[in-house]
């Protein structure tokens, strides 16, 4: 019913989904609390992107993984279109990104999400993520929730 595949940050459908996510978040948070990294400016060897498509090959979800120093990765741009929520696609995206991270030899996954995104926070907690302090390059932000999870082979 749904397929998940690796893609490039330059992929048109991936960029469309990221633009939808940015628009959604711009309503929830002020600009200074929107940590919208332009993934097209990240070195390709440090970035892994995935896209979820439906049976009609239409994009419905995305996510990215930013490889950081010390065996850590940051999950970025995890998004599922509202019409496809409740179908475990967020879980699929996170699990696929974690598999990629483990294959890269990474041992720690981290993420930043907004405090108004309760469903996302619940999903991450269900998948084993726990709240933590802000990590580089972030500063503490009362509108941000920082989470981490050890990764195992």
Unreliable stretches: none
Strand order of the largest sheet: 1-2-3-4-5-7-6
Outline the biggest β-sheet. Answer: 7 strands, mixed
* Structural shape: globular
Distance between the termini: 28 Å
Oligomeric status: single chain
* Mean pLDDT across every amino acid position: 92
| CATH structural class of the domain at 3-107 | Alpha Beta
* Percent helix range: 25-40%
Count the E strands. Answer: 7
Topology as H/E string?
EHEEEHEHEE
Based on secondary structure, the structural category is: alpha+beta
Gross CATH architecture of the domain at 3-107:
3-Layer(aba) Sandwich
CATH homologous superfamily annotation of the domain at 3-107 = Gcn5-related N-acetyltransferase (GNAT)
Give the radius of gyration: 14 Å
CATH topology of the domain at 3-107: Aminopeptidase
Beta-strand share of residues: 25-35%
Number of helices: 3
Helix/strand layout:
Blueprint: E1 3-7, H1 12-28, E2 47-53, E3 59-67, E4 72-80, H2 89-103, E5 108-114, H3 118-126, E6 130-131, E7 144-150
Parallel strand pairs: 4-5
Antiparallel strand pairs: 1-2, 2-3, 3-4, 5-7, 6-7
Task: Please supply descriptive tags for the structure shown above.
153 residues, alpha+beta, Aminopeptidase, 7-stranded mixed beta sheet, 3 helices, 27% helix, 30% strand, globular
């Amino acid at each position: 019913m749904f397929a998940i595949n690796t893609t490039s940050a330059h992929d048109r459908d991936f960029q469309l989904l990221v633009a939808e996510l940015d628009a959604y978040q711009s309503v929830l948070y002020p600009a200074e609390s929107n940590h919208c990294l332009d993934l097209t400016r990240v070195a390709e060897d440090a970035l892994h992107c995935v896209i979820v498509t439906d049976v009609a090959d239409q994009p419905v979800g995305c996510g990215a993984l930013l490889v950081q120093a010390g065996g850590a990765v940051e999950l970025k741009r995890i998004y599922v279109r509202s019409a496809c929520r409740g179908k475990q696609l967020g879980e699929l995206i996170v699990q696929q990104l974690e598999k990629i991270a483990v294959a890269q030899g990474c041992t720690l996954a981290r993420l930043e999400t907004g405090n108004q995104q309760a469903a996302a926070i619940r999903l991450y907690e269900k998948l084993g993520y726990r709240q933590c302090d802000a990590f580089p390059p972030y500063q503490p932000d009362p509108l941000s929730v920082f989470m981490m999870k050890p990764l195992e082979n």
